[in-house]
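retry 2 of 3: previous attempt timed out while embedding glycine. Reduced batch size to 1 and resubmitted. Inputs unchanged:
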Amino acid sequence: MKILVVGGGGREHALVWKIAQSPLVKKIYCAPGNPGTELLAENLPIRADEVSKLLEFAWEERIDLTVVGPEQPLSLGIVDIFQNHDLKVFGPKQEAAIIEGSKAFSKDLMAKYDIPTAAYGVFSEIEAAEAFIERTGAPIVVKADGLAAGKGVIIAQTCQEAVDTVRDMLSGNSFGSAGSRVVIEEFLTGEEASFLAITDGSNIIPLASAQDHKAIFDGDKGPNTGGMGAYSPAPVVTEAIHEIAMRDVLRRAVDGMAAEGRPYRGVLYAGLMVKDGQVKTLEFNARFGDPECQPLLMRMKSDIVPLLLAVANGDVSGMEIQWHDKAAVCVVMASEGYPGDYRKGDAISGLEDAAKLEDVYVFHAGTSIKNGACVTNGGRVLGVTALGDSVQGAIDQAYQAVATISWAGAQFRTDIGRKAIGR
Ligand code: AMP
Ligand code: GLY
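retry 2 succeeded.
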């Protein structure tokens, strides 16, 4: 088979790495890919949002399966366009990707199908928003409706801050049209988990549990990022929580989407808040989480290709996923300044030494090659991922690898996985 992976971050490097292990696969392309995917696939000079160029390539190369990593091409309708040309593709159609593309849609879906979530309102006028904020009180959460690269969620500590944030979003200053509507919701406390499942629109196969670390600094301090590290399994997802999440969140979402005439096929990611044995849904994403994908795929024992193909063909019934007993931890190394403006072009050292460590794989995200050397070229630069006999073992191994890698201004959290310890 010839497979095309769309995207160029750590998630896509992990997908390429896992797909490359399949005996079914002869050739992998990655668009645009990164220096990590280049070692396993042929990178293409096509961006993930250049849907017509991707179509032209897939059509001319007779690609057997296209796997879409990021949300933008899904929201642009890449799956619809490929299917219209009889090309097999893994991911939800545009009408279903809206579950991530519009937070207002997603919250209304949760309300309609009784999926537990925070109380909320959707607003496009400041007066009504202000009244809701006063009624609810702070802290309170303000979210831009549309895609905002993980940055459209502000936790306001005071009502005034919430009102200012809403005004800023509605004016189009900070998020353009993505902020022309806002979701305002009750602030929830608890421990977060990332619950991902593969679905063909009716059958649901859960992936192993995972937990992300959204904040930039240790102890979940500082502004939110795309994710500074992740691990699997996540003990916060006990068997009881797993049952509740499958029954009240995933099943209702998949059935709800079908009932809305928007059948969902692909990987559905539910961001959960867990507290006192209860689950509330923070958000849905229409794709693999990044960095959750990295530890999840390192733990996946079964061949991923038959699974992706089954989803593309619309029937995953009878399929199962086998997992390694080992735990996996991914520590993200980021550029100085991230998640704000960050440095670029710093030479990265130690990659070869890290690669020699047992059960370690360094996934590339924001890197590039300059004069034959690997340099930083993004906010999140590397996902240093390791397996271990326990989460603690995987933490130790991942940080041993992190210690061998450096560049000017590199930053990373030192507490990835700590919540899993001592539970
Ligand atoms: P979202 O993109 O909606 O998942 O929001 C990003 C992050 O903001 C989440 O992972 C949480 O850390 C935080 N967040 C979102 N909604 C809430 C909420 N209602 N209460 C507390 N934290 C939230
Ligand atoms: N790591 C969070 C996300 O992919 O949305």
